[in-house]
Amino acid sequence: MREVMTKSMARNIFYGGSLFFIVIFLGLAINSHLYIVSTSTDAATLTPSVEAGKRIWERKACVDCHTILGEGAYFAPELGNVMKRWAVQDDPVAATDMLKSWMQSMPTGTPGRRQMPRFDLTDEEYRNLADFLLWSNKIRTQNWPPNDAG
Predict the structure, then answer these.
(1) Strand partners, 93
(2) Exposure pattern of 76-102 as b/e (b: 16+ CB <10 Å)?
């Protein structure tokens, strides 16, 4: 190779390198799309009740205190596996009842303890939120959270 690089050599390196990385980028983008489509949660389990529960989760800003699947604030417990921790992951009625009784008992008034605000949801909203948490409990998370306590 020459010691001096000409303009045409520099241009060829620039265009060749740009083309190479564009091809790599497109290949990775296509691969990630195929990976997401092949491993995403079954759309058939995404019911209107689950969607309504997700909207309640967002409207009440639960993520400001809780994490779900590792995303959110670390002030309160992880909720991605809460139904498994409560051992109600196979019973939607028990899950709704458990969630409702837990949320209605808050705040406890115990000094020095983190307190969850009272939301006063309707029975349908409790059911929808429980369905959303049951749905998120079934997502394949590659062993996240790392322990049962979240």
Answers:
(1) none
(2) bbbbbbbbeeeebbeeeeebbebbbee
Tell me the domain boundaries of the chain.
Answer: 7-40, 43-137
The structure's pTM equals 0.72
CATH of span 43-137: 1.10.760.10
In contact, 76 and 124? CB cutoff 8 Å: no
- Give pLDDT tens digits along the chain (150 positions): 668 889 999 999 999 999 999 999 999 999 887 766 555 566 778 899 999 999 999 999 999 999 998 889 989 989 988 999 999 999 999 999 999 999 999 888 888 888 899 999 999 999 999 999 999 988 877 777 777 776
Q: Angle, nearest 10°, between helix axes 48-59 and 123-137?
A: 100
Could you give the C-alpha distances from 130 to 10, 47, 50, 103, 126, in angstroms and in order? 61, 12, 8, 11, 6
Distance CA(138)–CA(143), nearest Å, equals 12
Which parts of the chain fold into alpha helices (H)? 7-39, 48-59, 82-85, 92-104, 123-137
**Looking up tokens 């091809």, which residue turns up?**
23
CA distance 5 to 130: 66
